[in-house]
Amino acid sequence: MIKNMTQAEISLHIIKVLKENKKAEFEAILEELQPYDIAKIYEGLPEKHKAKFLLFLKNDLLADLMEELDKDEQLEVLNKLGIEKSSKILDLMDNDDLALLLHELSPEKMDSLLSGMKAEESTAVKDILNYPPETAGRIMTNRFVWIRNYFSVREAVDKLKIFAEFAETINYLYVIDEERKLVGVVSYRDLLLADMDEKINDIMYERVISVLVATDQEVVARTAERYDFLAIPVVDDKNVLVGIVTVDDIIDVVIREANEDIEKLSASGKAIDFDTKIFVAAARRLPWLILLLFIGLISGRIISSFEDTLKQVVALAFFMPMIAGMTGNTGTQSLAVVVRGLISHDIDKGVVTRLIAREFGVGITIGVTCAVLISVIAYIWQGNMILGAVVGCSLFFTLIIGTLAGTIIPLILYRFNVDPAVASGPLITTLNDIFSLMTYFGIASMFLHYLI
Amino acid sequence: MIKNMTQAEISLHIIKVLKENKKAEFEAILEELQPYDIAKIYEGLPEKHKAKFLLFLKNDLLADLMEELDKDEQLEVLNKLGIEKSSKILDLMDNDDLALLLHELSPEKMDSLLSGMKAEESTAVKDILNYPPETAGRIMTNRFVWIRNYFSVREAVDKLKIFAEFAETINYLYVIDEERKLVGVVSYRDLLLADMDEKINDIMYERVISVLVATDQEVVARTAERYDFLAIPVVDDKNVLVGIVTVDDIIDVVIREANEDIEKLSASGKAIDFDTKIFVAAARRLPWLILLLFIGLISGRIISSFEDTLKQVVALAFFMPMIAGMTGNTGTQSLAVVVRGLISHDIDKGVVTRLIAREFGVGITIGVTCAVLISVIAYIWQGNMILGAVVGCSLFFTLIIGTLAGTIIPLILYRFNVDPAVASGPLITTLNDIFSLMTYFGIASMFLHYLI
After folding, report:
1. Is CATH 1.10.357.20 the classification given to domain A278-451?
2. Topologically, how does it sit relative to the membrane (chains A, B) (predicted)?
């Protein structure tokens, strides 16, 4: 019915149906829509129609809708639904999405929501909340179907049919033994292709790739990406199957981690998007800026300690922004390569040594090229060959220092289990500012009497 | 057999089996491994064992192996296999992976490889190569199973069984009509749950979300991510089904696009990773650095035009790095928010207006805070209240300018279909350097006789 309608047309149609109280027709329309579309339509509805929209929506679709909304909207929906219906909806939500919602609520609010839920569901969510953030345990779901290895294909399919709602987004059945230990995996495709009387034991794949509950979510994503898996099983330290991470969550992790790297490299502050309020955004950015302000003052302090040199050759100031800027930039270039490389590489001593040697080589190459160029330019501009040599020589050294700092500092942070992107962006820019000014004025002071 | 062995143990075991010429045992081991593991083991083999490894490997696993290797290794394998066997392996590879491999080969090499392949496979690859890079057409595969809407579930399952190899990584069957137009979709799960005699027409989902062949790969990824799809069908402008994009390719797109944003924001040069050679890496970074060198000279030129002011109040130089650094950084912060936001948002006038207003507010908030702070510090340090006021006042204005430049410039680039990350990083830093120095020295010159 709505097959060829645009989203705006569907919205108008839904409003009409809501006004006319046609619940059956409403349900028929909604049945054709994807959760993402339902969420967009809900968000776009005039406020006065939202309550009836929620009232008409079936519970399973309400749970789907919840999973697509952002936090503030989720809380708004729960308020509209009232505590009793809310608990029913929460029962139906994926546990990992639910954990994300509950994570930042006040303990009282969380308790009141959890207490209305089914015991098994609320226990599952509480379990998830016990794992540290950004681990496999935190993003896994318990909504998967397990089978035993002595099952026949027919029994497996029958169990799958019973738990149809459960198994919605997954495409493997995980096989466990009597101790719930993970012993194999069978894909839906294997089931379709197999004979109904075959034993799962004979068709299952035994070398199952799994991750531990405590595994970092970035590693989980990397594993799934390497193996092109649609889901990855999560086990505890006794190899007992406790959950699965699905590919949609893995895509979310990949996007989130990339955004985090960008946030950190650009020191842009945590989680600022288009909808963040002015004072929240300002408050998240200010710490970095104030840090940078003080760091900038260190640079100022260095310059002031060379005040006499600067007073005698004011032209030295003309090249300051160029040298500091170039050094900072070459450091950021190296940093970006290292930070992104660490995501996809397993790091050992050989890799580190080769990388540092490579970047050292790059620093020298870049240093020679830029130094020759600036020496000539400085000489032509200021008509002073010594000044040209001082500027060129300084740039040569600072570019090598900048490149190495951009390479080595993130590797050291990584070695000590600090996320290399965390402090590196501003840290490296700052250190490079300080290094470059000291090198520049140091060299200039040495040649001062030739410069004047 | 190899269930509990580490990868190093498996490698050693494989070398032993290769030495003893036990082909059957070799195949039994390989059957248990994932393509990614096979590739890692192959890469780690001593050179002398590689040829026999390839010789023993079944064709379908060879194709899997190829898909995991990087380009140089792929060409090495093809050379080892010889042209005849190569063509057989290429027949078995996913078309999108094959297109990626062929894309950068010389026309002669490409022709010699294509000419040995099955006509239908080489035609499919050539078709893919005709689509522009970074579009759905370029990353889609033709290895999917289509069914007709009048099929029964039994017929669909039978067809799936015949094309088992084909349908390996997909979990939906796409339904087409007599003109090959896409009319529905059925998941494997739907097939498992349905009665064997039901008609596909009755169980299929009709409102299929699809993308066009010319759709940008970033939009394809965004669509799949929103709907949590495992695959997304690709149609031409007549709604004829021509291919599908699978979730593993979507994850690759997400990672590649994030890396590109980081490369561009940090001006780190295209595609430099841990294995890039020194001179290649240096050559890719130098253009940005040389551009920045000249831009740095513009800053120098501005300072030199205020030489008299600077000569009379050398202390002004002490605050230069801080003001330029802060302005550059606040610009980068805004830029990062905009660049990442553009990926997940549909942009309209309302969004743009709200965003600019928000960032203006953030600029004022940050500006007031930092200006007050630096005024006090500058006064205490240099004992000159006017100097404090000049520095604070300059910082206030430059932070607002920096924030707005970081917001508006990428939006303008986006409006004119230039990737906002392309030029923004260095461009914004540079412009902000110039703006900040002009503002600072402009204000300082106005108050010069109070400063001395």
Report:
1. yes
2. Multi-pass membrane protein
